[in-house]
Amino acid sequence: MSTDPAVAGPSATPARVLASTQAAQLLRRLRDRNGALMIHQSGGCCDGSSPMLYPLGDFIVGDLDVLLGLLDLRLEAGEVRDDIPEGAEAVPVWISGPQFEVWQHTQLVLDVVVGRGAGFSLETPEGVRLLTRGRSFDENELLALKADPALLGRQYEAGQRPAPAGVPTVVDDVVAACALPN
After folding, report:
1. 83 Cβ partners below 8 Å, 6+ apart?
2. Are strands 106-114 and 128-136 parallel, antiparallel or unpaired?
């Protein structure tokens, strides 16, 4: 069992997506300015493979797109709630079905770095860009995830929602959640 709060224990399902404190703060500012938000992990168009931030509903989610998770803007680093966020407090994070097949073994960590991102993403005028970092799940985490499949776009559209994460989804230390290469 990992001592890192971003990594679930043996009985918990790990979060498929986390946000750094800086990313959560940026999302809150942009939510206050633009209303409810959504993220789609880009598959390589325009700005490589970057998380793209949109006002909720401005990107059409496909039936087979996969919901990685709902980022809860109510939370600070290390906090956990036993309910799911609703409305503008919830930022759904999506990825295409084929891209999920490639990345399903990886926990994505949403972070913020200085620099210009894609012109389509809401954070572009801020002088920063969202960046996805990744950490491979271990065998126990993969087994837990297999027992708790991600929702598809068509299921979400029909009103299904994921269970509360039960683990922290906002992390203060991105390096602890996702070790950077030397």
Report:
1. 164
2. antiparallel
List alpha helices for 15-164, DSSP H. 21-34, 97-103, 139-147, 153-157
- Only one residue has tokens 């992390």, namely 171
- In the numeric block, the tokens 């996805």 are attached to 132
Say if residue 164's pLDDT is above 90: no
In angstroms, how far is the first alpha carbon of the chain from the final one? 24
pLDDT for 4 = 46
3-class DSSP state of 117: coil
- Cα–Cα distance for residue pair 42/27, rounded to 1 Å: 18
Domain assignments of the chain as residue spans, ordered by start: 17-177
Amino acid present at 136: S
User: pTM for the full model?
Assistant: 0.87
